[in-house]
Amino acid sequence: MPVFSGNPFSFASAADLAMPQISFSYDYTGIIASVSIAIFASFCAFEMARRREQGRYWVSLGALMLGLGIWAMHFIGMSSFRLNCGVAYEPWLTLASALPGVAAASIALRAIASRRIGYLRLLLAGVVMGSGVGLMHYTGMAAFQFQGRLLYEPGEFVFSLLAAVLSATLALLLNRRIAHSRLRRIPYLASLAAAVVMGLAISSMHYIAMGAARFLPLDGVQITSSISQTSLGLLASFATLMLLSFGLLFVFLYSKTLSARKRYESILSTTQQGFVLIDDTGRIVQNNAAMVGLLKQSSDQIIGKRLSDVLDQVVQDVHGAYQLQANLRCADGSLLPCMAYVNTFVDSADGRQISFALFSDISKRVAAEALAHAREQQFRALLDSTPDPMVISAADGRIVMVNLQAVAFFGYAHDALIGQPVEMLIPAAGHQQFRQDYLQGGQTRRIGGESVLYARTSDGREIPVEVSLSPIETEQGLLIASTLHDVTERLRIESALLAANREQEAILGTASVGIALVQQRVIRQCNHGLDELLGYPVGELKGQPTRCWFHRQEDYDMVGSTGYAQILAGQTYMLDLQLQRKDGSLFWARTSTRAIDQQQPEKGVVVIAWDITAERRAQEQIQLANDEQRAILDTATSGIALIRERTLHRGNRRLHEMFGWPLWEMLGQQTAIWYADEEANRIGGLPYETIWTGQSHTREQQLKRKDGSLFWARLQGNAVDPHDHSKGTVWIIDDITADRELNDALRSAKEKAESATRAKSDFLSNMSHEIRTPMNAIIGMSRLALQTELDRRQRNYIEKVVQAGTNLLGIINDILDFSKIEAGKLAMERIDFQLEDVIDNLGNLLSMKTDEKGLELIFDASAYVPTALVGDPLRLGQVLINLGNNAVKFTDKGEIVLGVSCLRQSADEVELHFWVRDTGIGMTAEQTGRLFQSFTQADSSTTRKYGGTGLGLAISKTLVEMMHGRIWLESAPGQGSVFHFTARFGLQASAQSSRMFTADELRGIRVLVVDDNAAAREILHDMAQSFGLHVATAGGGRQALEMVAAAQAEGAQFDLLLSDWRMPEMDGVQLVGELQRSTRLQAPAVIMVTAYGREEALAAAREQQVELSTVLTKPATPSSLLEAIGEALKRFSLRRRPVAELGQSVQQAMLQLRGARVLLVEDNDLNQELALELLSDAGLQVVLANNGREALDILAGDSAFDGILMDCQMPVMDGYEASRIICQTPALQQIPVIAMTANAMAGDRALVLAAGMRDHIAKPLDVDVMFETMARWIKPSGAAGSQVAPPRRAYPNSIGSVPASLPGIDVATGLATTMQSEKLYRKLLSKFEKSQSQFELHFRTAQHSSDGHAAERCAHTLRGNAGNIGARTLQQQAALLEQLCRGGADAGPIDAALQAVLAELALVLHSLRSMDAAASVVEPPPALPPVIVVSELLAASEKLLPMLEDGDPEAGLRWEEQHELFKAGYPEYWQRIETLLGDFDFEGAQQSLRAAMEARRTEHGGAPQ
């Protein structure tokens, strides 16, 4: 037989529903009991949930009770269910079925117990509750066992759940609605209504679900459960009994609680003290009626507030009981004084901290205390405010109180007086008896009236007083207040009163105003002034009514009503009115009337009257002036406004017209109506900060008229009183629209004028260049002519041409500079330079001119002036040369002194002061005033006598200002002039001192300075002394001999002699000769200082057999003097590396590079030849590429190079692009690329490094720098594998020597470029002549080509080639042309620069052609052709072929070494081969050599000769 194992949940199918069921029936008594149990449990649960504020456990107990009620209802209902078969219940599942109901009830009750629950949460709680009821039922049905199967009809199953959810939700909503409506006042209504709905929901769900159940028979099922239906009935009955007991207990306890609560609420409602109960969150949850009355708020308004919301002060963080006096905040905003008692305790039920507070109204007590305190303070203040001393004593005469005046009067401390007898202060006899009499009478009286009483102070002084006694009734008894009045002054006054009365009568009689005593409007007494004022005889006014002086009855009545009301109120009544004299004439008078005693009107009033007719006339004049001012303001052409707080208070007629408003309509409006938008209004308010400081403010701004149109206005504002903002500001506003339009027109005209000025300046600049071009040719050709054989007359003519041309060129240069200044195109460089170089250059330029005029040129430069500067040395030299030339020009005898000193110096900047002083003609103040103007000299006679354009000083002034300095002049007629200027320069960051020895090394050295010129002697003295030397001076040779002898006799002989050469009586050479020839004097080391040339001084010394080791030419600078001292004392003086050391470093670099294989990328054939020659001679293997593209092609097939020398500007592909590609190619990245370019600026170097090149070699080449730079980066790898010749530094000069000088060419610089190889230098000169003779044609063609950079490259090539041969001037002019082409300048400046280049190029080419012509004249006769040995010829050719095949530049040297052999052996081919070698066409040369060798072999049958 199968064993029953429970009822698994399953739905009945259609077939199951058609099967017969087990019959069943219900006991209706059980049904009624089950429904009642459900309603009773729900009611108890809802009521317990309402008690949540009394403890959290109430909700839990309610959930338990509702859950058990659901369970009990189910099983009571099941016990009334009669199934026609055996029935039992599974025990554990039966008990577990109670849990869903308890859980669902807990969630639902906590939801309705919450104060802040919303409808959504309430709906969710209803769903949970209904679902919990359903879950409990079906769990209980699962425990139901019978002999069959339990199935459910699906539709009825769903309906049962929906009914439970909807009914539960309805019950919860109903409970909440009633609890929050007026019906909540009915006890139990909300819980009862919700309980009925909830009980019906629970029971209906049960019976609907039972209706959905299908009990199908199943044979052979054995029931194993121990709980029968009878047992279930007993269990359900027990649960019901427990539930009823618990419910009854709850009702009993709640009734007890309710009774206690009613008593508690009755006490709270009847007590006069306010009460609040505060929960653990600090909010009020309960209050009583007294509290409502105190706060004047409803109970609901008080609930939820914090204690701090109703009390103005709360003690924080205090546990337990405390009491404080504070103020309650009432609903009407008033504060109610109260005494608050607050106590805090812990609720034993749930551990929460609960507080309650009691409040007692103490407002009346506080008011009484305040009143008593106020009265006490008032009495004390009254006592202290009385002007006389006051002493309050008891009946026995002891002092109980004194005021401050008594303390001050008697000089005792306050505490020292209290308790003392009154007799201590007033030691009069009969005090006690008088006090007894007074106490019996008890009225205020005065003593000391007839006889004087005396008070005694702490220092013993006695003061006459009058004492007033007053009684004071107090709770402690009668007190006596004694008021003391010092009558010292009264006695003095009384004694003087009679005299005063007499004087007063005299004064009143002579007073200029009228004075009258009036009683009852009748004149009782008056002075003579009133008689005169009203025109009455003396004494006639007495007894007359005051109506006699009133002109109008209205005035008389007004004084009688209004006037006397003010007078009797204690005020002074002032009135201006017309009075009439006795003769009827009228006049304006001002009266002042005051009562003698306002408490006793019968004593009358005093009237003072005086004539104000003149004052009234003045006021009328002022009013007239105000009216006139108003008229002026209304007719003013400017708008005038008084503004306070940005509101218009006053404004004239023009202001309204300007803004288009009707007259006076703008008054009272905000000034925002004047502005177009908020931003303009904000800007309009900004100036007030300035105005309130007392400053005036002016601005121009667009304002808005009433119709919205805008106009330009000028506004000027000032504060009426900067210290009182309430007085406002006054603004003057002018419509400047027309002025703005005029200014725009003027600005346009100014721009046109400036454009015309610039056009003029451009014209001057272009014309200066146009004139300079032929002038350069004139001067250059004249200088060339001077180098030819000329007779004396011709040479004189040509020299004058050169001199005139040079002067004219200087004038043109001034005009050019001035035009640049006017055009704003003159720029200042900022480069590193040495100040000594600028001064040395100045000395070289000026010394020739000073020598010609016999002037002394002296430099006065402090040794402590920094010389390593950053700035524009060219422009600084230009200013110095200009001032120096002017000094020489206007000085016929005497000296020229140039000085420099340091004004101020910082870490990176210095300001220097330069001056040039001469002993020339000088100038007047009028002449100096116009000296720095353009095209202006001192006067017209100056121009006629000395020449010049008058531009030099104007240019100098501009240059000085561009160097952030100023220039000025000090001069007097016949006394010479001193030109001063200041300039600012940067300091070089890594500058080194030029000294190699220190002051310690020079300390102790004695120097004697000999010079007949005092200024020169003083300057040399200061320079030498600044080096730390001990210096003495002598004015001539004789004095110097005497000083040398005296010093030697004292044992302190001189170590060094600084002597001028040309001196009267005994010159410097004679002085040195005397010392050297003397047997008794020891000659010191000698430095001969001369302004006449080193060679002349040495020649004069040789003639007199005098030995001179050191000659210093004037003007001497600190550096040149220091170097001369070092030379004379055999000490190094400058930080320069010895030449031998330089040579050794270059040799070492060349040895380090020996065997290296480099790729030379260069498009210029002259540069190619120079670089190939230098590198090959140094033992390097060189492969040539003509541009960047060709270099990349070579590197693609052969990358075995140790380094690459890269020109930057080339056609096809420039060096920058080629370098970037090389650096991006992995196979080539290790090869160092070094730039070789004529662009040596810092920006160009940055471009070089950015392209990936390692370093930079500037052109023209400094060979030593080139090899040292290459040695830093290029390391020979030995991959060439061929024998490399050792480097050479000396070359055979087979072509002939180069002339020592060539016009336009610095031969020394050119030879340095070729490492002193005259042979190579001549080749460079020859190639330059061939390649650049058509420069103009090439440049013009490049200008019109499609390549925008062609002209720039053409000028760049010329610049590099000129630098290589030493043509410095041509190099600079070509650089300028290149710069103009790069910057895209206009055609005018470019053409002017081109003309200058062509003029200098013509000079250079002429020099080269003259050199070639001279060489052809002296060329020796041709030698006899050598004997040809064919075998030697072919062997030499065989050695040359592999060199040509490898492109080795050594092939050219090998050809030159055996030039005569090849020339004789290949007469038809040698010229072609030499030309190809010269063009570095090694492939063509190889082919021609092979053809020549083949021809030679064919000619001689291949047999050797």
Automatic annotation (TrEMBL):
Residues 766-987 form the Histidine kinase domain. The modification Phosphohistidine is found at residue 1356. This is Sensory/regulatory protein RpfC. The chain crosses the membrane at residues 28-46, 58-80, 92-112, 119-137, 157-174, 186-210, 230-254. InterPro entries: CheY-like_superfamily (IPR011006), HATPase_C_sf (IPR036890), HATPase_dom (IPR003594), His_kinase_dom (IPR005467), HisK_dim/P_dom (IPR003661), HisK_dim/P_sf (IPR036097), HPT_dom_sf (IPR036641), MHYT_dom (IPR005330). The modification 4-aspartylphosphate is found at residues 1060, 1207. It is an enzyme of class 2 (transferase). It is found in: Cell membrane. Residues 1317-1415 form the HPt domain. The keyword Signal applies. It catalyses: ATP + protein L-histidine = ADP + protein N-phospho-L-histidine. It comes from the Bacteria.
